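Table S5 (text form). Sequence records supplied for joint modeling of the two-component complex.
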Amino acid sequence: MSERLSLVDLTVRFGRTTAVEGVNLKLPTGVIGCLLGPSGCGKTSILRTVAGFESPSAGVVRLHGNTVAGAGWGHPPEQRRVGMIFQDLALFPHLTVADNIGFGLPKKPAENRQKRIDELLELVGLPGMGKRYPHHMSGGQQQRVAIARALAPRPEILLLDEPFSSLDVELRDTLPRELRDILREAETTALLVTHDQAEAFAMADIVGVMQAGRLHQWDTAYNLYHRPETPFVADFIGQGTRIAGTMVGPGRVKTELGLLEGQVSHEYPPGTEVDVLVRPDDVIIDADGAGVAEIEERVFRGANFLYTLALPGGTRLLSLAPSHDHYAPGVRVNLRPAFTHLVLFPRGGASCHADSDDD
Amino acid sequence: MAVSQDAQPHVLIDKPAVPTGAGGLSAWKGGMILITALLALPLAVIVASVFWPDKATWSHLADTVLADYVINSALLAIGVGVGTFILGTGTAWLLSVCEFPGRRIFEWALLLPLAMPAYIIAYTYTGLLDVAGPVQSSLRALTGWSVGDYPFPEIRSLGGAILMLTLVLYPYVYMLTRAAFLEQSSSALNVARSLGLGPWAMFRRVALPLARPSIVAGLSLAIMETLADYGTVQYFGIPTLTTGIFRTWFGLDDIIAAAQLSALLLTFIFTVIIIERLSRRQARYHHHGSWQARPSFKLRRGQATLAFIACALPLGLGFIVPSAQLLAWSLEVTPTRDLGEFAVLASRSVGLAGLTAILALLLALFLAYGHRLMPGRLTFTINRIAGMGYALPGTVIAVGVIIPFAAFDNTLDTWLRDQFGVSSGLLLSGTVAALVFAYLVRFLAVSLNTVEAGLGRIRPSMDDAARSMGANAGLTLWRVHIPLIRGSLLTAALLVFVDVLKELPATLVLRPFDFNTLAVRAFELASDERLRDAALPALAIVAAGLIPVILVSRSITRARGNEGSISSRDPIDE
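The corresponding structure-token record, covering 933 residues in total, follows.
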């Protein structure tokens, strides 16, 4: 029973709108998970349902093997032992930092309570600052108080709702990694919600991409990038375009770039029209001029250039090339495919197999 | 409830019998419905009375005095409307854009007449302007005339009542209009000025139209208070709907007809409310941000003197003169006998007002927090209904309370006599309970609005944070909301306290036999022409009435101090 959290066919509706539809996922103990998606995709609704602020319309929520919510019912949040970090932090302005952290701890015995508060102040790097009031602290410090407060009662799981959105740009760079270290040290199981990929990849071991209430893929960052299971994931994570192709045999696709061969993400019968995902590092610009593709645009990225290329058929591709050899817009070049594996989707781009449950 | 023994200790029940938090919440909602149903009872009784069979009284009233009642009430409302409009908007404009000596003091001091209940100022001026009073005596001493040689206006008249009510009610218009003037985009005023408009033209052509919704709101408050007034018109002997209600009830002994008259009065009041709502909906005159320097006219000496007089007159006549007179009378008669009686009256009033204030606060917290826990149309409607009593005049509430309470008492008494041969007598009517209930009906809105406003400033994530750390709804209220809105709670209690202290007509009718309060005693003594004896209780009421005025004026001066910038991370209240 290593699953700390599991959602089975979770559906959440508000009146006529469906916020979350048939979501399945498992979060093992000690793992940091993240729900990533554009605003309004339902990720926050999942978090609030896990916390107990909303009830599922269908499906169940299990915490540590116990069902805590099902269709139309759920244990109230105060009985779930779930810690939560809110977007606006929600520190109590009338309480000192120590009293904020101690809010969820039993009042007695007082020594234990004080000991736990000191422990947490130490953990989040604010030793001796318990007597201050939250509004006398910086944004980053307030963030740490919120983390300490949520961790104090030793929750089963820590839920974080866009925890960095209210912070300054510099803090948004460093704090996710710091927070990750704190959670590791406390051996916390956590579920984070964000729309920011950088945050998701900096914090989480496992990331779920959501769109319009559906969970497209629940996987490692590497797999999301290299083995996206739906066109949406392919588009949402990293850069890339899709080009048309036709299956001509197992692991062989005929495209405008020529015949592509390799390990394929999904086998289709010969003759099937497919889309092939092309990442910027999947095509290499050949130095020999007078080729098929025309350089449309280039963006200097320091170590490399990101080129936009147009094929004769009108298809556009992206390609990364080292910045020491560069090509001016309008130049024609040859392209050399360098696929390690082929990510294929049936033609049309509609999401095909959104639900994934592979551990 | 099956508690699985070997389950983890943190989750008690594997499959609960009830949906999310339902048990406690549905009881809470039930409580809200019950409270509101009780509070709406008087209004329901008045409305229902329209459909009750008519005795001969109604046609008798219609043939004789009804027209007088309606015409006098209407004239009173119109007169006070015009008077408070002139005083309120005029002073508000002078203090918003003109520079003249005393301006800073007038800004808050013009609110002081609010502390003066109309019936108290009415009898004070009666004493002042009496044939034997100081004004006429000095006049005779100066001119050598004797009584009857000169014409002197009679204060105990319709015109006098309009004047008295205007003097104590104009601050409503002043307060709201001034706030509107200050909120107006100063660029609109600056543009007007650059187009060559002087202060008067700017007032008439730009500021006044822009402030219309606030002016109408202030006027509707003043007119509602006027229609609800009982003490002044009764003291001056003017037959209006409020005095008519009591006359029909006690003179003609027909409480049903009194209820029907109440319904007629309510029609007037709700008309005023509807007009106010409509005017507010028509236009959204919101200012957009910029706090530029607003135009300020430095007045020349002659103009400044006129402006000073224009502000000093309502302040002097509405507060300083009557307070000074009350003080003088109180000092004249302070034998120890009176002080003993005063102490009894004061403790009764304070006890009654304190009890009501605490109950109103608890009910307001229960209702407002209930809406926060269960947001939705039902709880919203419940709370709006619970706050509706504020529109009901004290006379109307008295009728609406006594009818159901007396019916209950009679039914119980009859039943007990039939069954057991004992009499329960009057269990509810004529007790302090009936009186406190009437106060709650009328004044719950005051505490409810204040508590709702306070809770509204607490972000919902605070509730969620507390809940996620193991505090249930009740504990969250106790540990998070109540400490955060301490200031609002205190204000809510104070406002109700003072309102109860000043309340006259409902107290007059519903109080237990031989149970006096400051307000009732002051009114009775004044009605018996014992003006000097009435002064001390009246002065005490005025002093208590200053509390909310100070609260409001403090918020005015504070707003002047730090316009705009309040950090969201600061403690929410105070």
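Note: The first helix of chain A runs from residue 43 to 51.
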